Amino acid sequence: MDRIDSQPPSGFRDLLPADAAARQAMMDRIAGIFRRHGFSSIDTPALERVDVLTGGEAEVSKQMYRAKLTDNDEPLGLRFDLTVPLARYVAAHADELTFPFARYHIGNVWRGEHAQAGRYRQFIQCDADIVGPRSIVADAEIIALMYDVFRDLGLADKIIIGVSNRKVLDGLSDFLNFDASRTPAVLRAIDKRARMGWDAVAAELTAKIGLDDQQVDAIRELLDLSADSAESLLDKAHAMLQFSPRSHEGIEELRRLTALVDGLGVPRSSWAVDLSIARGLGYYTGTVFETTLTALPAFGSVCSGGRYDDLVSRFAPMKLSGVGMSVGMDRLFAALDELGLVPPTAASPARVAVLDFDATARPTVLKIASDLRNAGVPTTLYLGSDESLKGQLAWAVKGGFPFAVIIGAKEHERGVAQLKNLAERTQDEVPFAQLAGRLAV
Amino acid sequence: MDRIDSQPPSGFRDLLPADAAARQAMMDRIAGIFRRHGFSSIDTPALERVDVLTGGEAEVSKQMYRAKLTDNDEPLGLRFDLTVPLARYVAAHADELTFPFARYHIGNVWRGEHAQAGRYRQFIQCDADIVGPRSIVADAEIIALMYDVFRDLGLADKIIIGVSNRKVLDGLSDFLNFDASRTPAVLRAIDKRARMGWDAVAAELTAKIGLDDQQVDAIRELLDLSADSAESLLDKAHAMLQFSPRSHEGIEELRRLTALVDGLGVPRSSWAVDLSIARGLGYYTGTVFETTLTALPAFGSVCSGGRYDDLVSRFAPMKLSGVGMSVGMDRLFAALDELGLVPPTAASPARVAVLDFDATARPTVLKIASDLRNAGVPTTLYLGSDESLKGQLAWAVKGGFPFAVIIGAKEHERGVAQLKNLAERTQDEVPFAQLAGRLAV
Hints:
Chain A is α+β, with helices and mostly antiparallel strands. The first copy, chain A, has helices at 17-36, 50-54, 58-63, 83-93, 137-152, 166-170, 172-176, 183-191, 193-196, 198-208, 213-223, 230-240, 245-263, 329-338, 362-374, 389-399, 409-414, 432-439; strands at 40-41, 47-49, 66-68, 76-78, 101-110, 122-131, 159-165, 271-273, 284-293, 303-308, 322-328, 352-354, 379-381, 403-406, 416-421, 426-431. The interface between A and B is large, with 111 and 111 residues. Strand 3 (66-68) of chain A pairs antiparallel with strand 3 (66-68) of chain B.
């Protein structure tokens, strides 16, 4: 027989049980925090019409998978983020939603990126957005949400949420007297700093964008501003950015945001104003934020987002602003794995393996397995072909189950089980009725 | 501006928040039961190589979406079930797994079916399989798992799990003296009975397959066998199916299975031997089962599966048998919806809306929202632009939140909130420190 290659396609991957369980546990926690903050879940299809997804942007279009049933069909596109589907969804269902509309969405997205370590062509994003509010309280809510997500994952002291406002850098053209049409290129250059270093950014600002050395130095001075507190940093920036009303507006928004984030109980140790945050994407118009793991700054942001002014006008005659965040689940997982911070997770969820090696005891064995499950104890029953106690114990050890329950003919008669702690290599006799209590977590 | 159509592509759909939450809650319960039975989760990509998915079957191939990045790429296929990916996965990772390997997988699959009510081109399957065991105890385990899933969903008395064994009908050719090559066609015809009625089946058996009336009557007599108990039904079938060793083997397996299912505590009111279950799919070789909602028999099976002999030999030089089940999540959800059995679910998970209508009280309002969330109470904060208490209350009522917390300047000073029960239209004053306790579920 010709055998078919069993590896997943290039750029895609399988998750083994322990990794799948660890990632699922993290996603369940994140979803729980989203709900605790009052965000509703939605679902949208993985396939969307191509015009919905691309809106004519060529860069996006190159990375997008197109899918069809037959050669004659119009292709559909596999979504590459959860923001564009949100925009379409809000336009389609505006009459059925209550605004401001706080929604979360956890799902796969697909991008045809070049395969490299830690980058896959299918990955999970966990998005939360508030659609509709103009109030900057919503921006503070999103920062509080990000903080709670990381705190719940046990990472409050391992991350820093950097916060800026797009208007601060948008106003650079006033302050430094260059043409505003160069601003997007300047922001894209600044955005590369963490990855490529300042020298590369400076070279791009001068050689490609045409700023002079004085302008570049002024930008660096602004980005490197530091102070004891968010407030004094903002004071310094305000003083520095003369004649730039747009920058001043951004700074005033950051000042109000700071008080609101304090008010929502986010400790200053977990977030900071960081004026170097540019966020390359075009659609942010106000607050922007990025979350980095303090032990892995070069890894880049694992959770980012910001405020945008116009989400749905491509689809419907409405102008809705919003603010949102996205956790790059698989990137976060890879980073935590590198840091040894993924909680150790068993391949099997079963807390106990009930062995089944003695035909006379089998009715009892089945009943015990059923009783343990009914009591909420995750339980596996031995189903292999090895009929020896020794062989079944070796299987239970290999499977990594914390406990084994042993019931042979003698135990069956006496109404007791041998409860073996496989990690500690201890064993004691437990009456059937007490097994579930002993195995409760 | 040219606006882009905001509807999802034909055959696909969005879920509104209440439906998304209700479906997610069901999936979370199902995953919990899978884990309680010791099943590990895995993940595989949505896109697989085309040869992996089709194995050359034309019917499958027609319903499969093909996706690619550029016109020159080899296309990949969107998976149309979770069983083929399981087979590839087991072959790829056999060295890293412990057998018997009990895995669950909840995920989207895609099929280009003709759009019709309740049928979508993307739908969720919840699969659980045990790969490797030859023991029929594994078959009983899967039936017990199915029962627990439906019991946990509150549907134990609303469903019936019909159980048969493929060998019983496979042996019909011995018993009725027709050529064994006609068996698959006979099974496919029988499989249509619930949907199309017996007359259509009988017509197909005679006109298309060439059985005579006597043979058709004998088949009907077998399928319609009834008795007070599984055991006496099996006795009758045994007596009827003379000279058919294969059928007798199936009946003996069902007899042993019955005792094991009893042993695992599944009540006879929730399952029954039903010899009319054929399961059209070719790969089942032993136990087969289908679950129907007793109030909607014509809706068809919402959870089915069976035992197969050869899962992975297409991918690796091993022969692994297994037994598994699949819940058609979206079909089940549609059926329960039709029966009014989907638990009423709010669009928002928030139990309380904290209003924010008075600037002087805002620091307290933010703190209360944060405190409630920290205490585990799902909480939303008003973020709209209406600054009146009346307008914000109207928003809270429209949003369907059970409670609203009202803190104006006076409440802020006195350290109390007005807690309004929006459903019962009652209100009382609650000190800040007692709010979380009052709102705990």
